[in-house]
């Protein structure tokens, strides 16, 4: 008699974690508390960002990277804002640059995590659909995924003039081929860890995580971003964020 084949062992479930760098000062926003701790609609920007990521069904753990002198304050803040207990939230100390902070967040991930979403605390209004789309693209096999939008402005490449004088234009890249990149950026954990080990440790910075992965020679793909995933960088961004949040709250009230 032919033996009945045993069922194939199902693949181990892969955990998806989010790392939220929130250790920046927010110098471009002007004087005040660290940017992530300032409020938007009466709630700290960081709390909005954490809520946005834990709303994604697949995200089981969020690592918040807090200002090094503000870990206890951030832990307290998150504890008082009634976040769901079904999702684990860790708080670790950040570093001097965004890159350092992301690396410190990665170091806090448990072994079973193999998909990582890195999301700026400074993008508190990212819709859950954008988070889900990035996670789904990584799960579908892409090693690195970034949400991005086409540009409305024409872009010039210049020779920077730090003194503020006129800057000679050296080129006009074809706008249709350019994208403005947002977060969360999603990665296979091993790919992101290698990028941080090999690229960042050489002092070869990049302004986003995907930039480091590109330098490894690994393909990065773009999925549609969202207008409301903009980064709060300057005071006017905060005005826009307040308006977007007020509109959301008004429509939720109906
Ligand atoms: N040492 C740093 C610097 C930045 N960030 C985080 O990286 C994200 C994107 O950075 P950005 O918007 O540039 O924030 P800041 O560095 O705070 O802004 P600024 O350059 O105006 O000081 C933010 O969520 C910020 O908290 C971080 O975790 N650690
Ligand atoms: C990661 C990022 O938000 C993608 O647009 C951006 O590069 C962060 O840049 P910043 O220099 O920290 O503002």
From TrEMBL:
The record marks 175, 231 as: Positions MEP for the nucleophilic attack. Pathway: Isoprenoid biosynthesis; isopentenyl diphosphate biosynthesis via DXP pathway; isopentenyl diphosphate from 1-deoxy-D-xylulose 5-phosphate: step 2/6. This is 2-C-methyl-D-erythritol 4-phosphate cytidylyltransferase. Its EC number is 2.7.7.60. Catalyzes the formation of 4-diphosphocytidyl-2-C-methyl-D-erythritol from CTP and 2-C-methyl-D-erythritol 4-phosphate (MEP). Keywords: Isoprene biosynthesis, Nucleotidyltransferase, Transferase. It catalyses: 2-C-methyl-D-erythritol 4-phosphate + CTP + H(+) = 4-CDP-2-C-methyl-D-erythritol + diphosphate. The record marks 28, 35 as: Transition state stabilizer. InterPro entries: IspD, IspD/TarI, IspD/TarI_cytidylyltransf_bact, ISPD_synthase_CS, Nucleotide-diphossugar_trans. Belongs to the IspD/TarI cytidylyltransferase family. IspD subfamily. PANTHER family: 2-C-METHYL-D-ERYTHRITOL 4-PHOSPHATE CYTIDYLYLTRANSFERASE, CHLOROPLASTIC. The gene is ispD. The keyword RNA-binding does not apply. Signal peptide: none annotated. GO terms for molecular function: 2-C-methyl-D-erythritol 4-phosphate cytidylyltransferase activity. CDD domains: CDP-ME_synthetase. NCBIfam families: ispD (TIGR00453).
